[in-house]
């Protein structure tokens, strides 16, 4: 009888443990907000660094879990670089700058930081642009405590011109040797062109890259621009963006450069891939490298007058990966306009895409696709998550993954009727559950 009671007790305890485990899993459903982040268990943080306008554009995670985000803040009617650091729970880090943030002004003109990366020794590099005559690419490097690194450019700040042409940088990556690569655009005459710049670790232009450290890539009579970049293990540089051949509707754009800045002829024969998805406006806003060497891009495509989230995969040769989605592309269905601005690849190869969904204003939005290009129905509601910040204007601009696969999103949320605040959210993004197939097929047209 005692043995039976003992086994009965063990059975009850096992059931309770299983039930608790299941309940815990339910509480941590992929796509749900993380209650351990932000105030009052909301999973959301809104920071107000100024009484005027501000916004976070990009985010990177330190090895210790601290969150570094960059953007701009309006100080005395002048936009300036903003770098903010948060602890892992979403509170501002008091050991960084002044109360968790640093504001950097490039002279007395407007400037915005668009991208951020960490050096191997933990320094913070932010890039963007500064208004002037002409507008210039602006780069700043900070020590771990937020002070400007005077070993970079003499005072921690560097600006780069393209003659008398307006230029800007929106993307950043750091090579293994410490060299800094930025990408964006330059207006030559009246035509916008893709621009890529490489700096030495001290902030000077790298003359081994396109002779003077600067490279531009024109596309006929139409405008083009870069939005994201990534460095391959072999040192080649992949840039994603958009181009409008002959000034028609924009197409997806991928360019691959050799490490010296020349176009890589092994990539679609001339180093350039353009893809027209549906004969309308398409743009690639983010790029990442898959574990198999493939190139993943995300952004928005126009279907029936609505912009929709998409993810696409190309092989290392620049051709669409036929094993991903439909001929290399998958689109998240929606009845309202959406645009994806960031992506992150998860440990199992899943593609997490983030941006905005516009319905009675705009909201944080994420979608997840499997490594095979299927909308993952185990994530949120049929693969999509939408988060309301209680305002009529909120959007994700930057995305990063923690070591335990939680997704940190940064962007902005409207405060009152005119000014924007910095906004963050953290989501559970467990990839242990098998994805369910659910994707919309569109056959893209590869252009050369």
Could you characterize what this model shows?
The protein is mainly beta and 448 residues long. It has a single domain (34-447), classed as Neuraminidase, CATH 2.120.10. The protein has one helix and 29 strands. The chain has one helix at 2-27; strands at 44-47, 54-61, 67-75, 78-86, 101-104, 111-118, 124-130, 136-142, 157-160, 167-174, 180-188, 191-199, 214-217, 224-231, 237-243, 251-257, 272-276, 282-289, 295-303, 306-314, 329-331, 338-345, 351-358, 362-369, 384-387, 394-401, 406-415, 419-428, 445-447. The strands form seven sheets. The chain has a five-stranded antiparallel sheet, with no helix packed on it. Strands 1-28-27-26 form a four-stranded antiparallel sheet, with no helix packed on it. Strands 2-3-4-5 form a four-stranded antiparallel sheet, with no helix packed on it. Strand 26 (394-401) and strand 27 (406-415) form a beta hairpin. The longest helix is centred in the first third of the chain and has 26 residues, at 2-27. It is globular and about 50 Å long. The termini are far apart. The relative contact order is 0.12.
């Amino acid at each position: 009888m005692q043995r039976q009671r003992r086994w009965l007790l063990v059975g009850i305890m096992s059931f309770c443990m299983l039930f608790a485990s299941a309940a815990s899993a339910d509480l941590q459903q992929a796509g749900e907000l993380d209650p351990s982040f932000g105030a009052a268990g909301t999973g959301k943080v809104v920071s107000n660094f100024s009484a005027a306008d501000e916004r976070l554009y990009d985010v990177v995670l330190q090895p210790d879990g601290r969150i570094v985000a960059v953007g701009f803040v309006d100080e005395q009617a002048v936009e300036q670089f903003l770098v903010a650091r948060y602890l892992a729970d979403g509170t501002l880090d008091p050991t960084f700058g002044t109360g968790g943030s640093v504001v950097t002004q490039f002279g007395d003109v407007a400037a915005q930081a668009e991208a951020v990366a960490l050096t191997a020794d933990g320094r913070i590099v932010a890039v963007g642009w500064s208004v002037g005559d002409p507008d210039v690419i602006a780069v700043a490097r900070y020590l771990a405590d937020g002070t400007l690194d005077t070993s970079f450019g003499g005072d921690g700040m560097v600006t780069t011109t393209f003659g008398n042409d307006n230029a800007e940088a929106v993307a950043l990556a750091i090579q293994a040797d410490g060299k800094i690569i930025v990408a964006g655009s330059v207006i030559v005459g009246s035509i916008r062109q893709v621009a890529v710049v490489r700096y030495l670790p001290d902030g000077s232009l790298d003359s081994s890259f396109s002779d003077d450290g600067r490279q531009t890539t024109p596309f006929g009579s139409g405008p083009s621009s870069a939005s994201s970049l990534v460095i391959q293990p072999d040192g080649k540089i992949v840039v994603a963006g958009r181009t409008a051949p002959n000034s028609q509707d924009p197409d997806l754009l991928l360019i691959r450069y050799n490490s010296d800045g020349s176009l890589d002829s092994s990539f679609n024969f001339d180093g350039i891939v353009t893809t027209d998805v549906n004969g309308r406006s398409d743009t690639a806003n983010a790029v990442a490298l898959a574990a198999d060497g493939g190139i993943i891009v995300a952004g928005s495509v126009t279907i029936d007058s609505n912009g929709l989230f998409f993810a696409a995969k190309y092989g290392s040769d620049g051709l669409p990966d036929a094993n991903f989605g439909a001929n290399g592309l998958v689109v998240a269905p929606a009845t309202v306009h959406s645009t994806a601005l960031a992506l992150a690849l998860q440990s199992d190869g899943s593609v997490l895409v983030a941006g905005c969904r516009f319905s009675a204003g705009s909201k944080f939005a994420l979608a997840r696709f499997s490594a095979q290009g299927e909308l993952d129905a185990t994530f949120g509601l049929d693969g999509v998550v939408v988060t309301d910040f209680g305002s009529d204007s909120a959007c994700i601009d930057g995305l990063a993954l923690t070591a335990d696969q939680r997704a940190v999103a940064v962007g902005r949320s409207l405060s009152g009727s005119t000014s924007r605040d910095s906004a963050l959210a953290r989501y559970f993004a467990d990839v242990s559950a098998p994805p369910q197939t659910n994707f919309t097929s569109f056959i893209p047209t590869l252009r050369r």
